[in-house]
Amino acid sequence: MTQRPAIPSAQPVTLMVNAQSRRGRTGLNRAVALLSAAGLAVRPVIVHDVSQANALLRAEVAREAPYVIVGGGDGTLSHAAGILARSRTALAVMPLGTGNSFARSVGVPLDLAGAARLIADGTPTQVDVGLVNGRVFLNSVALGLSAEIARSLTPGVKRHLGLMAWPVVGSKVLWRHRALHLNLTSESGAWVFHTHQLLVANGRYVAGPLRATPLASVADSQLDILVFGNGSLVSLLQVARWASGGKIRHITAHQLSVVSRTGDVWASVDGEVFQTSELRLTLAPQALGVLVPADFDARSV
Q1: Is 43 part of any domain?
Q2: Global confidence as pTM
Q3: Total domain count, the chain
Q4: Where is the DAGKc domain (predicted)?
Q5: Better-scored residue on pLDDT, 270 or 158
Q6: Are strands 13-18 and 42-47 parallel, antiparallel or unpaired?
Q7: Do residue 222 and residue 96 come from a single domain?
Q8: What pLDDT, on a 0 to 100 scale, did the predictor assign at position 276?
Q9: How far is residue 74's CA from residue 105's CA, in Å, rounded to a whole number?
Q10: DSSP string covering 121-143, please?
C-alpha cells in the first residue's frame, strides 16, 4: 500500500464522537484526556445525527485537515468513510462501538489508551473501501440471517449486552428465518443460490472478532463473497467451522450484482439495515487514508 507522509503529533485535531454509540458519551472525557496526554491538541465535538456528522466531516475535508478522529462504532466509521474517501483527510479511529470490526482490521487497539497512543504515533496509509449501490462500506454487506439479527438489535440491547447481543437475539431470529433465492453475477461468472446467509466482505473482520476468511484484508483489492450453506437450517448450522464439508462457498470479485428472485429482502451494510431487491457492489482500492501502527500489515492482523 502507498503511504502518506507522517502527520505531526502537534497538529490540532478534531475528535468527532457519536452520542449514540455504545460508549460515546461515557468515553468522550476519557478519550480527550488520553489524547491530550499523548501530546495532541484536541477539539471534541459530539454529534447526534448523520447530517450533523456529515457537515462536520465535510468542513474538515474542505480545510484539508490531515486527519480527523472519529469516535464511535462501525456504523459511525462507515458513514465517516463515505465523506473522507478519496480526500486528503485521513481517518483516525477511536473505538467506542460494540464490535469495532474496522478497528480490528486496521490494527487499532480496542482499549482507548492504546488507540490514543496509536493516533499520536501512527502512520497514515491507504486502504480499500467497498461501495454498495453507491454507498461506501468498510467491513461487510450481508443478506439473510445476520441482517435479520441486526434489524432486531436495539441500541439498548447492544449497550446492555455488548457482543453477547448477537447470539442472544440470533437464537430467537434463527427459527423464524426463511432462506433466500439469489442470483449473483461477477466479472468471473454467474450463480444461483438458495441460502440463509450471504456475506460480502471488504475487511478481515465482519462482526467483532469474527473473521470473513483467514486471508481477507482491507488491502487486497478484492471483495470476498461467502455463501453459507444451502436452503436448510441444518446446512447453515454446519458452517461454524471451515472444515464443514464444503458448506461455505467462497468467491472473490471486484464487482458483484446480487438480485433477490423473491422481491425485497433485508440487507445490512456495516450494521445499517434496509430492504432491497438488488445490490450493485464494487471496490475502490486504496481510497481511504487511515492511521495505522507503524508496522501495520493488513495480511496479518
Answers
A1: yes
A2: 0.85
A3: 2
A4: 8-136
A5: 270
A6: parallel
A7: no
A8: 94
A9: 11
A10: H-EEEEEEEEEETTEEESSEEEE
Clarify whether residues 152 and 114 are in a common domain.
no
Burial of residue 217, with CB atoms counted within 10 A of its CB: 0-12 exposed, 13-18 middle, 19 or more buried: buried
How do residues 90-120 score in pLDDT, each as one tens digit?
999 999 988 899 999 999 999 999 999 999 9
For 125, phi and psi rounded to 5 degrees? -145, 175
Cell output for 110: 480496542
Cell numbers 497512543 correspond to what residue?
117
Average pLDDT, integer, range 56-73? 96
Other Cβ atoms within 10 Å of 230 Cβ, number: 16
In a domain, 68, yes or no: yes
Q: Looking at the structure, do residues 124 and 203 belong to the same domain, yes or no?
A: no
- State the Cα–Cα distance between residues 81 and 130, nearest whole angstrom: 10
Over the stretch 119-150, which tens digit does the pLDDT of each residue have?
A: 999 899 999 999 999 999 999 999 988 787 76
Structural domain harbouring 37 = 13-128+286-292
Query: How far is the C-alpha of 140 from the C-alpha of 153, rounded, in Å?
Result: 17
> How high is the pLDDT of residue 160?
60
